Prior knowledge:
Elements: H1 3-14, H2 16-19, H3 40-47, E1 57-58, H4 69-85, H5 92-104, E2 111-114, H6 117-127, E3 135-139, H7 144-157, E4 160-164, H8 171-181, E5 186-192, H9 204-214, E6 217-221, H10 233-236, E7 240-244, E8 256-260, E9 278-279, E10 288-289, H11 303-319, H12 321-339, E11 346-347, E12 359-363, H13 369-380, E13 382-383, E14 385-387, E15 394-398, H14 405-421
Parallel strand pairs: 1-13, 3-4, 3-5, 5-6, 6-7
Antiparallel strand pairs: 2-8, 7-8, 9-10, 11-12, 12-15, 14-15
Helix pairs in contact: 1-5, 4-11, 5-11, 6-7, 12-14, 13-14
The protein binds pyridoxal-5'-phosphate (PLP).
Amino acid sequence: MNINRKTFLRNLGLGIAGGGATRAFAQNWELPQYLANNPKPFWSAIRRGYDIEADFRYLNSGGLGPSSRAVKAYTTQIENELEARVETGHDLLEGARVDVADFLGAAANEVTFVRNATEANGIIAGGIELNPGDEVIFESHAHPGGSFPWLLQAEKRGVKVHLFEPDPESISGNIGRIEELVTARTKAVQVSHITAPTGILLPVRDIASLCRAKGIWFHVDGAQSAGMIPINFAEMGCDSYATSGHKWVGAPRETGVLLVKRKRQDAVKSVMVGAYSAGLEELPGKLDYYPGAMRFEYGTRDVPRVMGMVEAMRIQEMIGRERIAGHGRSLVARLRQGIEKIPSIEVLSPRHPQLSSSMLSFRTPQLGYRDMFSTLVNDFGLRCRPVSEQGLDAVRVSCHVFNTVDDIDHLIHAIKMTVEANA
Length: 423
Ligand SMILES: Cc1ncc(COP(=O)(O)O)c(C=O)c1O
C-alpha cells in the first residue's frame, strides 16, 4: 500500500485552503536504515520524533498512545487549512476512509469513523437484534469500554451475559471455554483481540469459525490490537471490529474506527443518526440509509483528527508493521527474562508465542498494584498502568516504537529495587 502518495494526490485534487496540496509531514521524518544486527539507532531516531519529556519513560500505549511530532504537525496543518476557509473538511473523510480501510485490511465501505473503541462497541451492542433472554458471551477481562455496552443491553433489552475467563496458556483452551457457554439463545460473542489487563492475544480467526458455523454475531474489540500488530479484517473472519486510533496507532485523541462487514451492515440498526447517515428529500419521510458503514456516522466530525490518524497509519507503514510488532515483543521478552529472576515476581502475561503481545503484566505479593505503580512513576519516572481488574493486583507494561532497550533495563532495575526495599 502506498497510503502516502494516495492521500497526497487526493488532497491535491480537493484543493483545500485555496488549492494548496496537503503535505505529509512524515515525508520529512528521516529514519536511519534499519539494521537487524544494530537496530538501536533506528529505534532511538523514532524516540526522538516524540515530544515526551527526556527523563520520562512512557510505557502505557495500551492506555493512551502519544502522537509523534509528525502526527501533531499534520493534524494542526489540516486544522489551519480548514479554519482559513471555515470548512468542515467533510469531503476529506472519503479519502481517509480508503486509507484506513487499506491499513486495516477492510473495504472502504466497511469503515465508520467514531470517537473511540467504546463508541464502536456500543454501535454493535446497541444495534444488532437482541430480545429478552438472548445471550451474549465475552471475556471476564473485558475493559469497561467493551463490557459496559453489553451490560446496558442487559438493562434495556433483558439480554443475559455469560463470561469466560481468557486462557493465557492455550489457544484451544479459549475456544473450548467459549464453546461451553454457547446455547441456542447465544446471539453474540465478543472478545478483546488483545486483552487489556494482561495482554493475551486471543485466537480470533478460530473463534470466528466457531461463530460462523453457529450463526452467531462475532464482534472483536480491537482497542489493543490495531497499531500493535498488523490487522487484516477480511482474514479475521469476524462480523465487526472496533478500535481506537489513540492507543497503538499513535493517532490524536478521540479517533476510533468501527468496521462492519458489508453484507452484515443491514443487521445493525443505527444507534444515532443524522446528516451523513441517510438521505431524505422531505420531512416526514423514511430514512434512506447510505450504503456502506458511513451510515453509522452522523453530524459534524473532527476531520483534522481523522486525518491525523491517517498520518499516524502512514508513519506505521514507514516504520514497518511487522517490525513494530517484533520490537514490542522483543522488549517484552527482555522484560520477562529480567524480572523473572527477581524473587516473588509473577508474570501474568502469556509466554505462548501465539498468545503473547507487546504488553506484559506482573505482580508481587510484597506490594499492592497501587504502590508498585506509584513507586515506579514517582521514584523512577516509569509510567506503566495499574491493573485492578478481577482482583489481578498487577502492573501492566506496554512496549511500543518509542520505547527502547534502555527503558526496559531501567524498569527491570526499578522493579528489583522496589521489591528489595519492601522485602
Ligand atoms: C480492550 C479495550 N476496549 C476498549 C477500550 C476503550 O477504548 P476507548 O477509550 O478508545 O473507548 C480499551 C481501553 O483501554 C480497551 O483496552
